[in-house]
Automatic annotation (TrEMBL):
Domain TSEN34 N-terminal intervals: 20-76
Record PANTHER family: TRNA-SPLICING ENDONUCLEASE SUBUNIT SEN34, TRNA-SPLICING ENDONUCLEASE SUBUNIT SEN34-RELATED
Pfam families, per database record: tRNA_int_endo (PF01974), TSEN34_N (PF26577)
Active site residues of this protein: Y207, H215, K248
Function: Constitutes one of the two catalytic subunit of the tRNA-splicing endonuclease complex, a complex responsible for identification and cleavage of the splice sites in pre-tRNA. It cleaves pre-tRNA at the 5'- and 3'-splice sites to release the intron. The products are an intron and two tRNA half-molecules bearing 2',3'-cyclic phosphate and 5'-OH termini. There are no conserved sequences at the splice sites, but the intron is invariably located at the same site in the gene, placing the splice sites an invariant distance from the constant structural features of the tRNA body.
Native species: Torulaspora globosa
GO cellular component terms given for this protein: tRNA-intron endonuclease complex
Record protein name field: tRNA-splicing endonuclease subunit Sen34
């Protein structure tokens, strides 16, 4: 049975670079996790600072993760550009329409809550054997208990952007030539789960499975040109010592554009500091 692709909200700059890739659906986030794509939870409540320790939706994906999902057919993208969003926000008729829709949505939600709360109140009185009486005080109390759940996605991003195939094709074409994406794709093809590696001094860190179950084994550097770029001895020392200290292997990556087969263009060299750590 075919699995429905997850939905990603992608913001793209004019040159085709991914500036944001967000997933809002918890169901989609779980499915991505099963695919080995973890991303980073980034949702927070600005007015409640202590909540920021436990971040929530949306899930922020790296550009490599988003494009890899699109390339594999695991995801579909709502692609937006900042200039298009700005033009949308300046459209007064659209702003008025969205405002009316929001008011209607709030009133429908409140009415649903009123019906539910009245039913629960009547049920409780019957259990206690108390005759139900309609009092103004009860209605005031009911109205004060109504709440509105803030939406966890953007109406403008959802409705004002489209699954434009030409934009998605532009993303794939641009990143297919990107060295970082080639390294990411190669690591994923070996069954590794890949996450950002800046905190360990690399471009990526690679796990043998879900990061909640396994420690990462490798810190992978940003790719070099396999034929032209020199490898600084200082970088080898710094990378290998840091990686060995945190019980990982330092992996140098390179792109050999002279290889005809694309999967053979990415080269890896592992370095471990012997007798250290």
């Amino acid at each position: 049975m075919a699995v429905e692709p997850v939905r990603i909200n992608v913001t793209m700059s004019e040159d085709g670079t991914v500036t944001n890739a967000l997933v809002f659906s918890l169901k989609d986030i779980r499915r991505l996790r099963e695919q080995g794509v973890c991303g980073v939870l980034s949702g927070s409540l600005p007015t409640i600072a202590q909540q920021n320790v436990f971040l929530s939706v949306p899930l922020r994906l790296s550009a490599e993760e988003a494009v890899w999902l699109l390339e594999k057919g695991y995801a579909r993208a709502n692609v937006s550009r900042p200039t298009a969003i700005s033009e949308t926000l300046q459209d007064e008729s659209l702003a008025s329409e969205l405002s009316e829709k929001a008011k209607l949505r709030v009133e429908e939600e409140f009415e649903r809550q009123r019906v539910y709360k009245r039913e629960q109140h009547a049920l409780k009185l019957r259990k206690l054997g108390i005759e139900e009486k309609h009092r103004d005080e009860d209605e005031h109390l009911l109205e004060s208990s109504l709440f509105y759940e803030v939406m966890n996605d953007s109406t403008i991003l959802r409705d004002g952007s489209g699954d434009a195939e030409d934009l998605v094709d532009r993303l794939k074409a641009k990143y297919s030539q990107d060295g970082n994406f080639k390294v990411f794709r190669s690591l994923r093809s070996h069954g590794l789960v890949v996450s950002p590696g800046a905190r360990f001094g690399g471009k990526f860190i690679a796990y043998p499975g879900d990061p909640l179950r396994y420690h990462s084994h490798m810190v992978v550097s940003s790719p070099l040109d396999y034929r032209k770029d020199p490898i600084e001895f200082r970088d080898i020392i710094n990378g290998s010592r840091l990686s060995t200290t945190v019980k990982k292997i330092w992996v140098l990556s390179g792109i050999d554009t002279q290889e005809r087969q694309e999967e053979e263009q990415v080269k890896f060299f592992s370095i471990e500091w012997a007798g250290f750590g």
